[in-house]
Design brief:
Strand content: 15-25%
Number of domains: 2
CATH class of the largest domain: Alpha Beta
CATH superfamily of the largest domain: HUPs
Radius of gyration: 21 Å
Shape: elongated
């Protein structure tokens, strides 16, 4: 899960999309990895685009390829990528689908995306399509929404990760196990403070499903259970782990705590729900709201797909 060795950087060549480049470059440089610069077009791009002779673009129907090549070369020469292994890849199709496919083909560990954009790939970086990328991704996705707290420092030709505080949101379901493990690995590897939060939401129907006595007695029992589990989590991770139990709307409490602790990164498990009517899997609404309102980048970690919003508590890591 960590370190991230292979990083996918989808881009439409706009300045907005480049906000994610420094994160891709920093993780690659920090862990001796590589960056795959990925672009989706409406028509097929030759695999050898960067090596084609100039006369290959003389016809009007191929002039757009010259522009793609120029923008790609400019991006590959960006100072952020200096001394970083990098390659370019192209695809044709729907951005979210092609990004998911490229993640498998290139054995990607991390995808970095910006949640807004303007040009050909703009649909991939805003609104529901950004959420589709996260929902369909087979690996972790770092969602960036400028302006936010920035944990990458680029100075005098050097790029460094400055992850001082990591906040992981957990609910003890299988969907949050991978996120908790990844956040713990990152914290231990970088010497970051680790904060874990569990939010007791105002979902009495769900609480009653877990604790048959229902009502206030069920809520009291849930509070006790959560405090016990969070204490166990703190003991497991060591002295750097701080735990928080909040009550309210999950996304609001997660965002509030991230701001209060000055977290540099939120790590959250992306529980994916199948639509009742079929079609594209979708993220839970609370996860979407965390991504849209977070004061810092959000690392979305995929887990087992679920078909019910009811919790399924676990006490051990789910095998992957």
């Amino acid at each position: 899960m960590y370190p991230f060795r292979n990083i996918l950087f989808p881009t439409d060549f706009s300045q907005n999309s480049r906000a994610a480049l420094k994160y891709a470059a920093a993780f690659a440089r920090n862990d001796d990895g590589r960056v795959v610069v990925f672009n989706v077009q409406a028509s097929k791009v030759p695999a050898n685009l960067l090596n084609l002779p100039e006369d290959a673009f003389e016809q009007q129907t191929t002039q757009w390829l010259s522009q793609v090549r120029s923008e790609t070369r400019t991006l590959l020469s960006d100072p952020l990528l200096e001394n970083v292994e990098v390659e370019a890849a192209f695809a044709v199709g729907e951005p979210s689908t092609e990004i998911g496919r490229a993640s498998i083909d290139h054995e990607i560990d991390l995808v970095t995306v910006v949640t807004r954009g303007r040009k050909r790939l703009s649909r991939a970086f805003g609104g529901s399509i950004a959420e589709e990328i996260i929902a369909e991704s087979p690996c972790a996705v770092l969602a960036i929404r400028p302006p936010q707290r920035d944990f990458v420092e680029h100075r005098e030709g050097q790029t460094h990760l400055r992850l001082k505080r990591i906040l992981v949101a957990t609910n003890f379901r299988p969907s949050s196990v991978a996120a908790t493990l990844l956040a713990t690995h990152m914290s231990n590897h970088m010497g970051s403070e680790l904060h874990a939060v569990y939010v007791i939401g105002d979902y009495f129907e769900q609480i009653s499903a877990m604790f048959p006595e229902g009502g206030l007695a069920a809520l009291t029992r849930l509070r006790s259970y959560v405090e016990e589990r969070m204490a166990h989590l703190a003991r497991t991770d060591g002295s750097r782990a701080s735990t928080h139990v909040a009550e309210g709307r999950p996304y609001e409490e997660i965002v509030r705590l991230a701001a209060k602790t000055e977290a540099d990164l939120i790590v959250i498990g992306t529980a994916v729900h199948n639509s009742l009517f079929g079609g594209t899997p979708v993220l839970g609404s609370e996860i979407e709201r965390v991504i849209r309102n977070a004061p810092c980048p959000v690392l979305c970690v995929p887990a087992a797909r679920v078909v019910t919003p009811l919790p399924s508590f676990v006490t051990q890591a789910v095998p992957t």
